[in-house]
Design a protein that fits this description.
Blueprint lengths: L9 H31 L5 H28 L8 H7 L11 H28 L3 H25 L2
Length: 157
Protein backbone atom coordinates (compact mmCIF):
# COMPACT_ATOMS: atom_id res chain seq x y z
CA UNK A 1 0.00 0.00 0.00
CA UNK A 2 1.19 3.52 -0.83
CA UNK A 3 1.61 5.52 2.40
CA UNK A 4 2.30 9.16 3.29
CA UNK A 5 5.00 10.26 5.73
CA UNK A 6 2.30 10.02 8.42
CA UNK A 7 1.57 6.40 7.53
CA UNK A 8 -1.79 7.21 5.91
CA UNK A 9 -3.00 5.93 2.57
CA UNK A 10 -1.96 8.43 -0.13
CA UNK A 11 -5.22 8.21 -2.09
CA UNK A 12 -7.37 8.75 1.00
CA UNK A 13 -5.11 11.59 2.08
CA UNK A 14 -5.40 13.28 -1.33
CA UNK A 15 -9.19 13.11 -0.96
CA UNK A 16 -8.93 14.66 2.52
CA UNK A 17 -6.75 17.47 1.19
CA UNK A 18 -9.39 18.25 -1.45
CA UNK A 19 -12.14 18.32 1.17
CA UNK A 20 -10.05 20.38 3.59
CA UNK A 21 -9.35 22.90 0.82
CA UNK A 22 -13.11 23.17 0.33
CA UNK A 23 -13.48 23.84 4.05
CA UNK A 24 -10.68 26.40 3.87
CA UNK A 25 -12.42 28.22 1.02
CA UNK A 26 -15.70 28.28 2.93
CA UNK A 27 -14.03 29.51 6.10
CA UNK A 28 -12.41 32.35 4.15
CA UNK A 29 -15.82 33.48 2.87
CA UNK A 30 -17.29 33.13 6.36
CA UNK A 31 -14.39 35.16 7.78
CA UNK A 32 -14.87 37.94 5.25
CA UNK A 33 -18.61 37.99 5.93
CA UNK A 34 -17.88 38.42 9.64
CA UNK A 35 -15.52 41.32 8.92
CA UNK A 36 -18.25 43.02 6.90
CA UNK A 37 -20.82 42.42 9.62
CA UNK A 38 -18.44 43.79 12.26
CA UNK A 39 -17.82 46.93 10.23
CA UNK A 40 -21.37 47.57 9.04
CA UNK A 41 -23.72 46.52 11.85
CA UNK A 42 -26.16 49.21 12.98
CA UNK A 43 -29.01 49.56 15.43
CA UNK A 44 -29.82 48.90 19.07
CA UNK A 45 -27.68 45.75 19.16
CA UNK A 46 -24.60 47.44 17.68
CA UNK A 47 -22.38 47.23 20.75
CA UNK A 48 -23.24 43.61 21.51
CA UNK A 49 -22.91 42.36 17.91
CA UNK A 50 -19.90 44.48 16.98
CA UNK A 51 -17.93 42.72 19.72
CA UNK A 52 -19.45 39.29 18.97
CA UNK A 53 -18.65 39.46 15.24
CA UNK A 54 -15.06 40.41 16.10
CA UNK A 55 -14.87 37.41 18.45
CA UNK A 56 -16.15 35.18 15.64
CA UNK A 57 -13.75 36.47 12.98
CA UNK A 58 -10.78 36.23 15.34
CA UNK A 59 -11.71 32.61 16.03
CA UNK A 60 -12.12 32.02 12.29
CA UNK A 61 -8.61 33.35 11.62
CA UNK A 62 -7.23 30.72 13.98
CA UNK A 63 -9.29 27.96 12.36
CA UNK A 64 -8.25 29.05 8.86
CA UNK A 65 -4.61 28.74 9.88
CA UNK A 66 -5.23 25.34 11.50
CA UNK A 67 -6.95 24.05 8.36
CA UNK A 68 -4.16 25.29 6.08
CA UNK A 69 -1.52 23.79 8.35
CA UNK A 70 -3.39 20.47 8.44
CA UNK A 71 -3.41 20.46 4.63
CA UNK A 72 0.36 21.05 4.68
CA UNK A 73 0.81 18.31 7.30
CA UNK A 74 -0.99 15.95 4.93
CA UNK A 75 1.52 17.02 2.24
CA UNK A 76 -1.07 19.04 0.33
CA UNK A 77 -1.13 22.63 -0.84
CA UNK A 78 -3.69 25.00 0.72
CA UNK A 79 -5.72 27.23 -1.55
CA UNK A 80 -4.73 30.85 -1.15
CA UNK A 81 -6.48 33.06 -3.71
CA UNK A 82 -9.90 34.65 -3.52
CA UNK A 83 -10.63 33.25 -6.96
CA UNK A 84 -10.09 29.73 -5.60
CA UNK A 85 -12.21 30.49 -2.56
CA UNK A 86 -15.14 31.83 -4.54
CA UNK A 87 -15.01 28.88 -6.97
CA UNK A 88 -15.08 26.33 -4.14
CA UNK A 89 -17.28 27.95 -1.51
CA UNK A 90 -20.89 27.10 -0.78
CA UNK A 91 -21.22 29.57 2.11
CA UNK A 92 -23.28 32.54 0.95
CA UNK A 93 -21.49 35.84 0.47
CA UNK A 94 -23.11 38.53 2.61
CA UNK A 95 -22.99 41.99 1.11
CA UNK A 96 -23.99 45.30 2.69
CA UNK A 97 -25.69 43.73 5.71
CA UNK A 98 -26.23 46.18 8.54
CA UNK A 99 -29.40 44.73 10.09
CA UNK A 100 -28.82 42.76 13.29
CA UNK A 101 -31.24 39.91 12.59
CA UNK A 102 -30.10 39.53 8.98
CA UNK A 103 -26.46 39.47 10.14
CA UNK A 104 -27.04 36.82 12.80
CA UNK A 105 -29.08 34.73 10.34
CA UNK A 106 -26.14 34.88 7.89
CA UNK A 107 -23.80 33.62 10.60
CA UNK A 108 -26.18 30.78 11.48
CA UNK A 109 -26.60 29.71 7.85
CA UNK A 110 -22.83 29.93 7.29
CA UNK A 111 -22.09 27.81 10.36
CA UNK A 112 -24.73 25.30 9.27
CA UNK A 113 -23.00 24.97 5.90
CA UNK A 114 -19.59 24.63 7.56
CA UNK A 115 -21.00 21.86 9.78
CA UNK A 116 -22.14 19.87 6.73
CA UNK A 117 -18.65 20.08 5.24
CA UNK A 118 -16.97 19.23 8.54
CA UNK A 119 -19.19 16.21 9.10
CA UNK A 120 -18.28 14.92 5.64
CA UNK A 121 -14.59 15.42 6.41
CA UNK A 122 -15.09 13.69 9.77
CA UNK A 123 -16.46 10.60 8.01
CA UNK A 124 -13.64 10.58 5.47
CA UNK A 125 -10.93 11.14 8.08
CA UNK A 126 -12.38 8.37 10.23
CA UNK A 127 -12.29 5.93 7.31
CA UNK A 128 -8.70 7.00 6.55
CA UNK A 129 -7.61 6.51 10.19
CA UNK A 130 -6.55 10.18 10.21
CA UNK A 131 -6.96 11.00 13.88
CA UNK A 132 -5.42 14.47 13.50
CA UNK A 133 -8.04 15.65 11.03
CA UNK A 134 -10.74 13.71 12.87
CA UNK A 135 -9.93 15.44 16.15
CA UNK A 136 -9.88 18.88 14.50
CA UNK A 137 -13.28 18.33 12.90
CA UNK A 138 -14.78 17.02 16.15
CA UNK A 139 -13.60 20.14 17.99
CA UNK A 140 -14.91 22.49 15.28
CA UNK A 141 -18.28 20.70 15.18
CA UNK A 142 -18.85 20.78 18.94
CA UNK A 143 -18.05 24.49 19.16
CA UNK A 144 -20.12 25.47 16.13
CA UNK A 145 -23.15 23.47 17.24
CA UNK A 146 -23.14 25.39 20.52
CA UNK A 147 -22.73 28.71 18.69
CA UNK A 148 -25.68 27.91 16.42
CA UNK A 149 -27.82 27.09 19.45
CA UNK A 150 -26.85 30.37 21.15
CA UNK A 151 -27.43 32.48 18.04
CA UNK A 152 -30.80 30.82 17.43
CA UNK A 153 -31.68 31.64 21.04
CA UNK A 154 -30.74 35.27 20.34
CA UNK A 155 -33.04 35.15 17.30
CA UNK A 156 -35.84 33.77 19.50
CA UNK A 157 -35.95 30.41 17.74
Amino acid sequence: MNKTILGLDKKETANLVTELNGLLANFQIYYQNLRGLHWNIKGKNFFELHVKFEEFYTDSQIKIDEIAERILTLQGKPLHTFTDYLERASVAVGKDISNDVEGVELVVSSLSELLKIERTILEISDEADDEGTNSMMSDFIAEQEKTIWMLNSWLGK
